[in-house]
């Protein structure tokens, strides 16, 4: 795997020199033959050296091309970050790249010809004689690649975890002549996985002692353990739960959803906010949201789930009531808005947006002055809004010019908006279009005025 550029160029120049000499000689021979008037047989015999020389030139050119391609592949392998070793059936290393030499701390001449178990493990005999499986032997026997995790010895004699890929090299008859061993250091990854496993242990203990409901399922979804909070929430005894399938404790319409989500849970390793209607022992239902993670064995295989249950029954009822209010507000014909102390819009219903021919994004987060214009805001809205922010309920009537709705006479009400601490955080705007009533009143006044004039 050492670079052979100069050698390859020398080989190339040598072959090309031979080709040029042969071409020159061939041209001379052709002129001589043409001038002598020899017979056709003589001409053919004279051309034979040229043909032979041409074939030799083709072989030489092909040799050059192969040498250049070999140089390219050697350069690529030399620069790979993974350790690459070529190993024969007698476990002896026949080639190695630069990365492997750096890892092992050996020079190339100290590696080539030595056994792989000497370099990788410091053994004086094959790995299987030291109680370790030897996948290399299996690759030579089966001819199939192998991928596994192993421990190797570094140059400083420290142990490292490595992922190894063994790929067979075969001859034309299909027999394995060598095996390519690609080695990647995964020590950091293994350490991270170990830390994660310890974290999961702490996670499990936290859940066991949590005031929230805790449950653990096996790989098929059967209960391994639950905590007392879980039992109190659903009204079962521990013996009625452990060993039973989770699907037996949820509403029938949720079972298919559980099957699907549990499969995804096992693949992803964690889950958050999955909701189920669970059935209490008395037959009543409780809506729960489940968060959890998978616990693994030391070999990485599935061990059990660790999940907590949040009773969200009351929260869902409150959310549904809130959604009802939102639908009512959204469908109201009055213009409704919520403005904070800085006169920035926090919310506005559809009627409010339609009047300005704007989208929610064009209003929410903008100031009242930006929407109405600075002059109208300063002279009409702000004086009344300041009184409202001081805790006063304000109601007034005025003409408004809306970009989409046009000129309208509005009955506007400002109500203080209180935060959880009962402090004023803004004000609620409710505006009702009374243009028709205003115009009717003006028409009536004009009619009465004309009547008095006639009288």
UniProtKB/TrEMBL annotation:
CDD domains: PAS (cd00130). InterPro entries: Biofilm_reg_signaling, PAC, PAS, PAS-assoc_C, PAS-like_dom_sf, PAS_4. Residues 1-49 are annotated as: Disordered. Pfam families: PAS_4, PAS_9. The lineage of its organism: unclassified sequences, metagenomes, ecological metagenomes. Residues 144-198, 272-324, 392-446 form the PAC domain. This is PAS domain S-box protein. Residues 69-121, 199-269 form the PAS domain. Gene3D superfamilies: PAS domain.
């Amino acid at each position: 795997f050492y670079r052979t550029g100069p050698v390859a160029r020398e080989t190339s120049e040598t072959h090309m020199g031979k080709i040029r000499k042969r071409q020159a000689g061939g041209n001379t021979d052709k002129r001589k033959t043409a001038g002598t008037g020899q017979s056709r047989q003589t001409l053919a015999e004279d051309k034979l050296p040229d043909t032979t020389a041409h074939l030799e030139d083709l072989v030489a050119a092909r040799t050059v091309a192969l040498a250049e391609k070999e140089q390219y592949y050697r350069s690529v392998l030399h620069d790979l970050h993974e350790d690459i070793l070529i190993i024969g059936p007698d476990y002896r290393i026949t080639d190695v790249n630069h990365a492997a030499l750096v890892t092992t701390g050996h020079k190339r001449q100290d590696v080539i010809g030595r056994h792989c178990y000497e370099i990788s493990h410091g053994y004086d005999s094959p790995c299987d004689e030291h109680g370790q499986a030897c996948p290399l032997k299996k690759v030579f026997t089966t001819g199939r690649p192998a991928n596994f995790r192993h421990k190797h010895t570094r140059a400083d004699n420290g142990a490292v975890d490595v992922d190894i890929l063994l790929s067979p090299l075969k001859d034309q008859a299909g027999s394995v002549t060598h095996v390519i061993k690609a080695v990647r250091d995964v020590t950091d990854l293994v350490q991270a996985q170990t830390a994660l496993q310890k974290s999961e242990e702490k996670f499990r203990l936290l859940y066991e002692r949590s005031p929230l409901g805790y449950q653990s399922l096996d790989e098929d979804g059967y209960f391994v353990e639950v905590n007392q909070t879980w039992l109190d929430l659903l009204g079962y005894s521990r013996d009625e739960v452990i060993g039973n399938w989770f699907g037996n404790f949820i509403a029938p319409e949720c079972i298919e959803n559980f099957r699907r989500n549990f499969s995804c849970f096992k693949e992803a390793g964690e889950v958050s906010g999955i909701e189920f209607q669970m059935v209490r022992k008395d037959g009543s239902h409780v809506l729960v949201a489940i968060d959890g993670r998978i616990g693994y064995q030391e070999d990485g295989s599935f061990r059990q789930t660790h999940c907590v249950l949040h009773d969200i029954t009351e929260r869902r009822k409150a959310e549904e009531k809130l959604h009802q209010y939102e639908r009512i507000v959204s469908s109201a014909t009055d213009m409704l808005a919520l403005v904070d102390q800085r006169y920035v819009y926090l919310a506005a219903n559809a009627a409010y947006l339609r009047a300005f021919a704007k989208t929610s994004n064009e209003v929410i987060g903008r100031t009242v002055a930006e929407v109405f214009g600075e002059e109208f805001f300063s002279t009409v809205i702000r004086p009344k809004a300041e009184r409202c922010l001081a805790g006063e309920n304000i109601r007034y009537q005025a003409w408004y010019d809306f970009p989409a709705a046009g000129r309208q006479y509005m009955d506007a009400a400002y109500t203080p908006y209180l935060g959880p601490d009962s402090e004023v955080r803004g004000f609620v705007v409710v505006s009702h279009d009374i243009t028709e009533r205003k115009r009717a009143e003006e028409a009536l006044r004009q009619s009465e005025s004309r009547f008095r004039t006639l009288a």
